[in-house]
Amino acid sequence: MATDQQPWLANPEWVRKRISGTPASNVETSRTIWLACAFALVIGTLGLALQGAETWSQKSPSFLFLLIFPIIGIALLSWNLLMKLRASRYSGAYFEMDSVPFFAGQDLTGRIHLPLGGRLRGPVQLTLNCIRRTKGATRGLTGGSKTTWDALVWRGEKLGLSPGPTPESEWSTIPVEFSIPPDAPTTSSVNPDDRILWLLRASAKLQGIDFLQYFEVPVFMTTGVTTRPGYNDPEFYAPVVVSLPAHPPSGDRQVIIRPSAGAGTEFLFLASRHWGIAKGATAGFCVWTAIFWYFFWGSDPLSFSLFVFLDVLLLYWAVWGWFSKVSAIFEDGTATVRNSLLGVGKSKQVAYSDIRQITSPIASQSGEGAEANPAYTIYLQTSSQGEVTLATGLRNAGEAGYIVERIKAEIKVPAVK
Predict the structure, then answer these.
(1) Could you give the CA distance from residue 186 to residue 103 in angstroms, rounded to a whole number?
(2) Angstrom distance (rounded) from CA 338 to CA 381
(3) Are 32 and 83 in contact (CB under 8 A)?
(4) What pLDDT does 193 receive?
(5) Which of 200, 235, 196 is nearest to 217 (CA)?
(6) What is the DSSP letter of 188?
(7) What is the structure's pLDDT at 237?
(8) How far apart are CA 371 and CA 201, in angstroms?
């Protein structure tokens, strides 16, 4: 059969059921990091040299600005060297597939073979990641180019246990088994600027250089053909929605479910959803305030006003991250959503009959692709008000899926047609 009906036949590694590992999830991004490293080092070094040694000990804003470049360059250089060492140290790692291809709604199984030389003493962290890789046109000093961005669509996580290397070999074997959601988007390269790919990520803490490898695996529909929305389709710009596992919250909960005053159900989304943002904003506020007072106190009114505005903006961001809450009350055929900060906020009401569906896609992420930390957002898809945001920043996929199922049961939302 032609490869347009069986596209996995176009990849020799998939046909052999043996996929070689790579130390980076996106080779194009690795090249960009090398270029950014060289650019930062050159600009910083030249700038500091042109400033002159006599300005290096002065409280000059330009000196501080130029000093940032070589610091960034050194950090990027260290990262690139680590990637090179990791690629050399763990060369030869591969994923042996039990079948080809894997199908949505079924299991992905196989074994990862690792040249760890008997150094593996604990579990291997395994994640299966569905990634949407998009390219956008940008124009820089050297002309037009395309910037690549990896958005995480879905992730499954497991711990892989190894029986250890055999007496005659230093290789370790890690069994792999994941269940692929039936509604997950499948591997697609029809549009090179809007691809769907699946990456199996394996990592382990070791003495010296930690182990980290990626394996691109084939996931298709049983028909072998997958279509993606085009540029003119509104769905092209929307987050890709995939069903999540529904696990009752345990441990560090981000949502409290309790009876409401009117004999309904209240979902209280706590401020702890945003504590990662809050910590970053608080650190940014403290650093920015210190820089402001040290370098810009007493400067001209325009610069002073600009830096005060940015300082206040960071302060608000930090306060919002620490103290914002969302209350969603479902009772008497109406959902009442209230967003508040320190007790001050506004409410929105949505009738049950107006709700078509409830979804929980990954709407934001820190990091990129297989390395991203996803944040799930729960939306009420309505007929008259469009997409109503219920809550943002949920970090636990199982908890987000559980909340969605509880709300569906509460309002008896009809199945998607």
Answers:
(1) 8
(2) 17
(3) no
(4) 82
(5) 200
(6) B
(7) 67
(8) 9
User: 278-283: which pairs have CB atoms within 8 A and are 24 or more residues apart?
Assistant: 278/318, 278/320, 278/321, 278/322, 279/321, 281/314, 281/317, 281/318, 281/321, 282/318, 282/321, 282/322
Measure the CA dihedral 367/341/267/235, to 10°.
-50
Q: Would you say the C-alpha torsion 72, 68, 375, 248 has a positive or negative sign?
A: positive
Number of CB atoms found within 10 A of residue 358's CB: 21
pLDDT at res. 266: 92
Q: Which helix (H) or strand (E) holds 202?
A: strand 194-204
CA 101 from chain centre, in angstroms, equals 25
Cα-only R_g, the chain: 25
Burial class (CB in 10 A: 0-12, 13-18, 19+), 118: exposed
Q: Compute the 3-state secondary structure of the chain and give helix, strand, coil in percent, each to the nearest 5.
A: 35, 35, 30
Task: For residue 397, give the nearest of 46, 157, 132, 204 by alpha carbon.
Answer: 157
Secondary structure letter of residue 294 according to DSSP: I
Separation CA 175–CA 159 (nearest Å): 10
State the Cα–Cα distance between residues 255 and 249, nearest whole angstrom.
8
- Low-confidence stretches of the chain (pLDDT beneath 50): 141-142, 415-417
Which pLDDT does position 287 carry in this prediction? Answer: 84
The count of other CB atoms within 10 Å of the CB of residue 127 is 18
Determine which helix (DSSP H) or strand (DSSP E) holds 313, and give its type and residue range. Answer: helix 301-323
CB-based burial, 32-43: b 16+ in 10 Å, e otherwise: ebeeebeebbeb
Residues β-bridged to residue 176: 110
CA-based nearest residue to 79, from 371, 360, 387, 362: 371
Does the N-terminal peptide bond of residue 101 adopt cis geometry, omega within 30 degrees of 0? yes
* Beta strands at 219-220 and 102-103: parallel, antiparallel or unpaired: parallel
Helix (H) or strand (E) holding 291: helix 275-291
Report whether 401 contacts 244 (CB < 8 A).
yes
Residue among 215, 229, 264, 291 nearest 22 (CA): 215
What is the pLDDT, as a whole number, of residue 414?
55
The per-residue pLDDT for range 90-104, each reduced to its tens digit, is: 778 899 999 999 999
pLDDT at residue 97, rounded to an integer? 95
Q: How many CB atoms lie within 10 A of CB 55?
A: 14
Q: Which amino acid is at 87?
A: A
